[in-house]
What does this fold into?
Amino acid sequence: MCVGAVQSRVRRLKRLRWGLRVDERTITSSQVTYRKLAEAEWAHVPPVLPGRDDPERYGKRFRITHIMETLAQESGDIEALVAIKRRDLSQAYAYLEIAEIYKVSGLMGGLGRGDELHEDA
It folds into this structure.
């Protein structure tokens, strides 16, 4: 179950006011466990460099990428989100997405020459 779904259920339970007490430590513990599982799976996803293709692009890779992007967005970690996007530079659109992330966050100074994007990929 994703973190957002857990938080949504907790909010619904609180609105029902059936006398249920939700322990915030339980929620935090679930989020930490979910993140650890996602990061363990993400560690097995290889980078895809420009001009290459991944047969799992629309399968397993798509799902774990979406999970990692959601976790980065919820935490507000711009550099983590960029690192996730950098993992697949197979299409030119990926570079635009990275530039847009920096632009929206106000960190355009963090975007240097294009070849710097390949350092950790």
User: Anything to note?
Assistant: The two ends are 29 Å apart (CA to CA).
